[in-house]
Design a protein that fits this description.
Elements: H1 3-9, H2 13-22, E1 27-31, E2 37-38, E3 53-57, E4 61-72, E5 75-85, E6 90-93, E7 108-116, E8 119-127
Antiparallel strand pairs: 1-2, 1-3, 4-5, 4-7, 5-6, 7-8
């Protein structure tokens, strides 16, 4: 594939990512030059600068890398976390199924989609044992 074809394929990486979410699939990119897992979608590899990026589906399994319990006025605290996916990239999300303050670093989690009528699907994570 030529650089022009690759670049044309990647001109709208954000839209490709959103289309994947709408279809119930978490997509990330893999660099064909250096092999890096690239997330959030972009037009060039953040490791080597190559435009040879290809979208791949993630299994949606990973490990909690960090977690913060955010207090909410009038409601329970909610989790804001970084999950390190098994494919080698990290993403921000939240952990559901546990009180936010009880989410341990190193917890194995599995992604699941939350949907609502007025918003795009959102990927959250649940403890692997609970699935």
């Amino acid at each position: 594939m030529s650089d022009v074809e690759i670049l044309d394929q990647n001109l709208r990486p954000h839209q490709t990512y959103l289309d994947g979410l709408a279809a119930g699939t978490l997509l990330y990119q893999r660099c064909g030059t250096c092999g890096a897992a690239v997330f959030y979608p972009r037009v060039a590899c953040n490791v080597c600068g190559s435009v040879d990026l290809a979208f791949q589906p993630s299994a949606g399994e990973g490990t909690v890398y960090s977690n913060t319990a955010v207090a909410s006025a009038g409601g329970p605290a909610y989790s804001v976390c970084i999950v390190e996916l098994d494919e080698g990239f990290r993403m921000m999300s939240s952990v559901v199924g546990l009180p936010a303050e009880d989410v341990p670093i190193g917890l194995r989690v599995v992604g699941q989609f939350e949907t609502s009528d007025d918003a795009a699907p959102r990927l959250v994570f649940a403890p692997r044992e609970a699935i």
